[in-house]
Amino acid sequence: MTEPVLDIHGISKSFGAIEASRNVSLDLRPGEIHALIGPNGAGKSTLIAQIAGALAPDAGQVMLNGADVTALGTVERARLGLGRTFQISSLAMEHTVLQNAVLGALGERGGVFRFFRPIMSDPDLLRTARAALERVGLQDHERQRTADLSHGQRRQLEVAVALTLSPKVFLMDEPMAGLGAEGSQALTGLLDGLRTEAPILLVEHDMDAVFALADRISVLVYGEIIATGTPDEIRADARVREAYLGEEVA
Amino acid sequence: MTRERLVNAVILLGLLGTALGAWAMDAPYTITLATKVAILALAGVGLNIALGLGGLVSLGHAVFFGIGGYAMGILASHAQSYSPILTTPFVIEGTKSMPVIWLVAILASALAGLVIGALSLRTSGVYFIMITLAFGQMFFYFAISWPAYGGEDGLSIYVRNGFPGLNTLDPIQFFLICFVLLALGLGLTARLARSAFGLALTSARQNAARVQAVGISPYRLRLVAFMLSGMVTGLAGALYADLNRFVSPTMFSWQTSGEIMVFIILGGVGRLFGPVVGAAVFIVLEHVLGGLSEYWHIYLGALLLLVVLFARGGIIGLVAGREVAHD
């Protein structure tokens, strides 16, 4: 079996009496989309924060490409190839679409402490940024101010910025949130092609997208992973049906 | 040419024109006022790097202004008394050369910026404002309690420092020195805003999590911005001391920090020429209203209120419209 790219092992995190993560283990193998689902309040966001490096777990390990990154922060993990998108669009709203994409390309290339040369005429960064914008379908909006984008377009830009990083792992927190049917279909198509570039850990509420895309699904309930398996196995799992899918599948 | 650029050109030429006109009409006091505007504007240009680009509300920029002032005062006072600053382990003489004084002012400010920034930038928001204010007060009281350099009374320098090839005692020549430095400061800030560093810094102001997620540390960006910001304000401090041929702890006071910030808020936060307009309005008000009443700050306060309430983007924003994202 191939080594997992991302390996989360025995993570626990409590806030006072609330156990947000209980001994969570999951892994992400090359070429796969691994979906993480769970009802509201299951602890998905807390888990994502611990994987991204924004929150330190009380116990457990996060391994990225075989290296223990548990002690590292967000910045270092991003440099090691963790490309994340946020549940709530997290962009520089006063900047243009292109500037946001160029920022991603700059983070990937390095050389941020350059004070004189105008960055928006750097051909390498522009090429990377424009290629990413084109893949998500924002190429005609590059000069628009990000604050003036529609909600769906901001979601697309989130993905584009992650693409500019050429990450080794994508960590996507509800990329479909708030997208219309058409938008989530287009994004589903994009993510489908993306898994060969880098595996995706996908947190998502849109069940159509999850079951269409995921190679494996893990179900998080009350901070605990109650099942991991293929979409068919998850559909058939009695505990999952009881805890979560109940009404939606029936 | 965008509207803002046009407005900027008018402002810069207006300042130059005022000084040259006053020179032609033999009105040296007006030249001095224009010089004061140029110097205070430069101090504001410095703060605008931290505040406008970086979103760092520093209420302690008087530290840099004062360091620049005392760099001039200490070097020049030793030169005028022919006593070296240091004899062991090696001799350091004072100097009356402006370029050397500027260099010392800039380097000392960079060092202060590194130390103050490294500590202050661990906090944010109100705590950052308070900690920068606290550093300002530390320097203020240190200057007061340092008798070797005048303590509370400050230091007087009898003859303005020299610049190779120029007569700095001639008001228009000293104005031109300050004006060129201001233009240089504005030009460098404009480049900075468009550079890789500028994009990352302004992005971190808008959304620090985004910058982290692409693998850039906002802390390091802000620390460098704080240092650069202090270096420019420090240079302005050295010029201000030379304008008055006097330096005192007042340059370190929190009122000075506040005034520099007022220039920016009046003119427009993050707008390249905001501090220039702000400083000009401040000096004109001080000159015109200050003659009528010593409580002229009341009117300044009223104006500041109006600008804050009704003109987002300050006076520049009012005249030139909303900032366009540049590329």
Question: Can you walk through the features of this model?
Answer:
The complex is a heterodimer of chains A (250) and B (327). Chain A folds into two domains: 1-81 and 167-250, P-loop containing nucleotide triphosphate hydrolases (Rossmann fold, 3-Layer(aba) Sandwich); 91-166, no CATH class. In chain A, the strands form two sheets. Chain A has a six-stranded mixed beta sheet with strand order 6-7-8-3-9-10, sandwiched between helices. Chain A has a four-stranded antiparallel beta sheet with strand order 2-1-4-5, with helices on one face. Chain A is of the alpha/beta class. Chain A contains nine helices and ten strands. In chain A, helix 6 links the parallel strand 7 (169-173) and strand 8 (200-203). Chain B has one domain (19-253). In chain B, strands 1-2 form a two-stranded antiparallel sheet. The mean pLDDT of chain B is 94. The interface between A and B is large, with 43 and 28 residues.
In round numbers, the mean pLDDT of chain A is 91
Q: Total number of β-strand segments of chain B? A: 2
Largest chain interface and its two residue counts? A-B, 43 and 28 residues
Shape verdict of chain A: globular
Largest sheet of chain B: 2 strands, antiparallel
Radius of gyration of chain B from CA coordinates: 19 Å
Output the strand order for the largest sheet of chain B: 1-2
